[in-house]
Design goal:
The protein is mainly beta. It contains three helices and 19 strands. The protein folds into two domains: 36 residues, no CATH class; 271 residues, no CATH class. Strand 18 and strand 19 form a beta hairpin. The protein starts with 5 loop residues before the first strand and ends in a 19-residue tail after the last helix.
Amino acid sequence: MAEPTLQTSKRQAARTGPDGAKISTVPIRYAAEVVPLQRSAGSAQVGFKARGPHTVLDTVHQEGCCKLRFPRPEPGNVPEAVLINTAGGLTDSDVLTVEAVWLRGTCASLSSQAAERIYRSRGEPARISNRLRVDSGATGLWLPQESILFDGGRLSRRLTASVEDGGQLLACESTIFGRGAMGETVQRGSLMDSWRIRFDGRLVFADAFEIDGPIADRLNRPAVANGANAVASILYVGAAAERLLTIFRDAAERLGAMAAGSVIGPVLHIRLLAETGAVLRQDLASVLTQLLSQLETGGPGPTAVLPRVWSC
């Protein structure tokens, strides 16, 4: 955002002496633009490596409002990393950047401590950039909790991932437009959700979901969301895409949300639309649990499960 400029009004504030004579003129100045406020900025980098049959930390870096915590996993479960935004939410011009790497022979999950809140913006969007890399023989699990877009909120979110042949990635992103239990609706705002996925160096998936302006009205359109107020995308990249599609179709029969899935090459793409955030979260957890239980992570290693923070 540009620095505010000061302009001089045509009105003048005159000072007079005891005899009424004008002795000075002071221009009245005012800000012509929104005064910039201090913004939140945070970044985190985490890498996992194999030590024998175990997955351990390779690199960790955290900066600004973005923190990483590593809860002790339950016996038999894969390691977990948890992202925390100490700013308590995002608004215009806030920036979060996350980079994660899974080296050969690793399997670990990366999640968020709680739902990310996107508050009313004065113009610019909050920006989230996530960059993932999964090596051959590794399993990356990107499983953040939902983002809640409040009325007037603006969010630009981008996820890019590179998966080597022989590796696999399971990722999800979800957004709730206002908290239905609180009677909230999102009359205006914007969401730009972009995905770019490469497998073995080739671009295999590109998707951009954008909604702007009167969000509540546009979500009601049959060709957009048919009245749904919560959306989610699940992406699996790897050799098991066709097999996991069958697992998803069996699970979809028991969901309260509208759900669809398709496979193109090594990519399974699933989209969920729900009337409320509660329904979406319940169904999203159910689908992810089913998919995680079917992942082959190489050998008799730890089991991939939904991160515990989803149950807190």
